[in-house]
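Bench notes, afternoon.
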Amino acid sequence: MKLLCLILFLPVFYLHGIAQQLPVTDSVLSLSEVLVKAFEQSHSSNSVPVLKPIGGNGIDRGNNISFVNILNTVAGVKMEERSPGSYRINIRGSALRSPFGVRNVKVYWNGIPVTDAGGNTYFNQFSPPDIAAIEIVKGPAGSMYGAGTGGLILMQSFANRWQPSAAIEYSTGSYNLQNAIATVGFGNSGSKNLLSYTHSAANGYRYHSSNHKDKLSFSGQYQLNEKQLLMVNILYCHLFYETPGGLNLQEYLADPRQARPAAGAFPSAAVAKAAIDQTSFLTGITHEYHFTKSVKNSTTLYGNVARIKNPTFRNYERRTEPGFGGRTVFSFEQSWNTTNLKWTGGAEWQRGFFNVQVSKNRAGNADSLQTDDDIVFTSGLVFAQANLELNRQWFITAGASINRSVVSFTRLNAYPVQEQQRDYGNQWAPRIALKKTFKNNHELFISISKGFSPPTTAELLPSTGVISTFLQPEWGMSYEAGGKLSLLHNRLSLYANAFYFRLNDALVLRKDNNNADYFVNGGNVQQKGIECSSSYFLSLSSHFIQYLSFRTAYTFSHFKYGNYNKAGKDLSGNKLPGVPEHSANVTLDILTKKDWYFNSSAFFNSLVFLNDENTAAGNSSFVAGCRLGWKHRFSNNKIVDIFAGVENVFNQRYSAGYDINAAGGRYYNAAPLRNYYAGIAFQMPTGNHSGVY
């Protein structure tokens, strides 16, 4: 550990010493500006401290298979992969109600809501080539984005710098990993098109964990005239992955690679052929119209459908989930000398028509029907927000939304057929933030926001099969303060913020004796935390090491239950399961004069409690990975990239994601031990356009 820290930090001290001898204009790294889209603030990324944009070489580091190593570099964010293809995103404890999948986090792709009307997000339909930049809002974002107490993720396909090009990449690795990516960008500054195809497959580290994925996406931006911009986005994905299931501690220690064995009346994961077979399609069109220089509108219409087949050791579930919706945003912006005012208002509406059939599972095939439910979920919000900038030093934001969700269930296999309905109406979600900037790009900020989140479809109809319209929405107030320091001629940036979030009527996961999920409103949760991060950039054109990027992030999460009673036990004051109290990460990127580059990352998580009673805990973990490559640009602007890497360098045994509150202590999902990958990529310009748009 000490040796690794020395290796990681030594280049920083060495290059900083060199930098002191160079003119500022030679040593300051010129970075492409990332504009913040969240809250319609249109400032550079440094102007919104509650956001953490990820762009540039942060998107394609590692083996370019998933977003796990990308999102885990952000303080307060943890992405888990319980089995290959099965993701869970935890933003400040938001995964408390997510035994699997992404819930309570609102996700948008190029302005299209990816989170459906029922609150579920199939994040696994995306691949790193689809995304050029990611912005993350931690905590309630309901003032403009509706229900949700966990956070917000905005993903963009086009970077600020774009040019027509074609690229192909192939990599292979341990456990028969095969990953192929092809992308084509064509058009010009007024007609940008991006087509991407990804195929990935692997046998998996654990038994019964093979997976394969085929994804095709298209994004286009067309400047119709000086006032109108049209954007088109299409995404198709077919994903299949076997689910090996959780292990208890004895099984995990004896053989972490094994799949869940047979237990009692339930078959093993292999005999049940437990798996997810997922097909999803998403398309949307956005029209942006500038009425004047100060007034514009952006309107998005979209449709999506997902079909899921999910045999498990308990049953066989089939889901068909079509939906559609729209979002419109009007904005007015006016400046007077050093004062700038921007007003934003709009609405969003979604509707989903879901059918869920649950049958007995006979060796991976649907047998006799148990339940058949039609679900109609409608959600909508109206919002308004004002941003005031005074003398380029004070930034004031105030906004609010009013939200409503209505859900109805019709159980078709029970006679007489009856409908159950629940209306979660007229929920207010305000937000106010104040920021003060100082000389040398120093900043201080405070914010207060309220969030609420009604139960998702998966919580209203859990795996017990009992319709739970009695569940209440969870809601809470978030208070946050922090700041940023810019030092060493803006080469070094230091960020820190503290927050307190009290969540009331918190939706928490429980398991019955058959390990089926169900949810209850579990009193309140008190979340106190500190998030710190730093970034150091250096460009040295006349030295062997030409570029260095060094980032760190640390998160302290003091999350505990307030008033919480479970089955007659008073668990008030217990730590929140699934959230480590301490987590940290370090990333280092180096580019040399000879076109060699080196990327490395290291992640640490402290002990994690695995149940509400705090009687079981997962050990702390320290996981590191690195990638070495040679990337050369030829005189005709063709680029070749040859690379190889290692994941889990120190061969640590750890769980990639825990099954919280699992019956029989089946908490553990073993991550791969040390594994390797290597690949090659080519890129060439297309058409006659050699410039950057």
